[in-house]
Amino acid sequence: MSDRPRAAKETPLAIICGGGSLPLAVADAVTRRGRRVVMFPVRGFADPRDFADYPCHLIATGQFGRFRRLAVQEGCRDVVFIGVVLRPALRQIRLDWDTIRQLPRVFAMFRGGDNHLLSSLARIVEDLGFKLHGAHEVAPEILVPQGAIGRHAPGPRHEADIARGLAVLAAIGPFDVGQAVVVADSYVVAIEGAEGTDRMLERVAALRRDGRIPSAAGTGVLVKTPKRGQDRRFDLPSIGPQTVARAAEAGLAGIAVAGGATIIAEPQRVAAAADRVGLFVVGIAAAG
Predict the structure, then answer these.
(1) How far apart are CA 116 and CA 119, in angstroms?
(2) Which stretches of the chain are DSSP H helices?
(3) Are 221 and 201 contacting, i.e. CB atoms less than 8 angstroms apart?
(4) 40, 92, 261, 282: most buried by Cβ count inside 10 Å?
(5) Which parts of the chain sit beneath pLDDT 70?
(6) How far is Cα 21 from Cα 26, in angstroms, rounded to an integer?
(7) Which of 116, 140, 164 is the last residue in one of the domains?
(8) Which helix or strand (DSSP H or E) is residue 281 part of?
(9) At which of 112, 140, 168 does a domain end?
(10) Residue 229: C-alpha distances to residues 174, 243, 264 (Å)
């Protein structure tokens, strides 16, 4: 049975948008299934002009009341968060009445890592009367499949680095640190922290220029997986063309990500970019 008749009966989907191309990719995918979407770009991270083809309401970080009022007005019951939003400082939270009522919970959100903050945010949104979904649940085509993307595939040397990277990420997962690591010839070069993947890769490129990485350029793998126990409705690891460019600048051989649990922006451009610079990009099986 086609998805379209079923989707047409669903209420509109509210998409809270951070930066990057993923919010629009999700909106387009959901629309192709026949479901109406309403975009809620977050001020300072997403530009409403990028969503000119969709109903759109700009919101500020922490404006629970404004979001609730507008989403109800649009008939939305389901919500997706997607796109880049940096962890805000408490002073950056815009207070409206609903936010003030939630202040003790808002303060508690910031006493922990990103997964704690996002899971707490999910509970607040659902207590406002909405159902929160992962972007991959409403648009499964945005996920990296298992197997190679593009012409190149990892060899035995790279497979060993991937295995070491997975072991490192499994070990640090309980500490809510990061989703990515770079391993070169079984040497752990970098672990992602608050700076994010792109900045971590810039750091690896600087280390290589300074001669701090013992292996030659063209070795090493970026490995990305969700944190163990992570709330997958939020912040699944993601890659895009810029990830490939940064990995190439860092002198890596390739990128390995959890297949079926990593979001890919512009997959055709990712494959073309990887082929152009000679990197492999591969979706791998990874425990979650």
Answers:
(1) 5
(2) 3-8, 22-32, 64-73, 97-101, 103-109, 114-127, 135-138, 156-172, 196-209, 241-249, 267-277
(3) no
(4) 40
(5) 1-9, 85-100, 103-104, 106-118, 287-288
(6) 9
(7) 140
(8) strand 280-284
(9) 140
(10) 8, 25, 21
pLDDT tens-digit series, residues 138-166: 999 999 999 999 999 999 999 999 999 99
> What SS3 class is residue 37?
strand
Same structural domain, 147 and 135 = no
Range of the domain at 12: 3-140
| Distance in Å from the first CA to the final CA of the chain | 31
Q: What's the predicted TM-score (pTM) here?
A: 0.83
Strand partners, 288: none
Say what the pLDDT of residue 163 is.
97
Tally of residues, the chain: 288
| Amino acid letter, residue 112 | G
Angle, CA 195 vertex, CA 207 and CA 167 arms, to 5°: 75
Residue whose structure tokens are 């280390």: 207
Record the tokens describing residue 4, joined without a space. 């379209």
Is residue 107 within 8 Å of 90, Cβ to Cβ?
yes
187 and 173 within one domain: yes
User: Sign (positive/negative) of CA torsion 262, 87, 82, 104?
Assistant: positive
| Rounded Cα gap, residues 161 and 8, in angstroms | 46
- Cα 243 from chain centroid (whole Å): 12
CB 248 within 8 A of CB 277: yes
Q: Is 174 exposed, middle or buried (0-12, 13-18, 19+ CB in 10 A)?
A: exposed
Q: What does the pLDDT read at residue 4?
A: 43
User: In Å, how far from its chain's centre is CA 58?
Assistant: 21
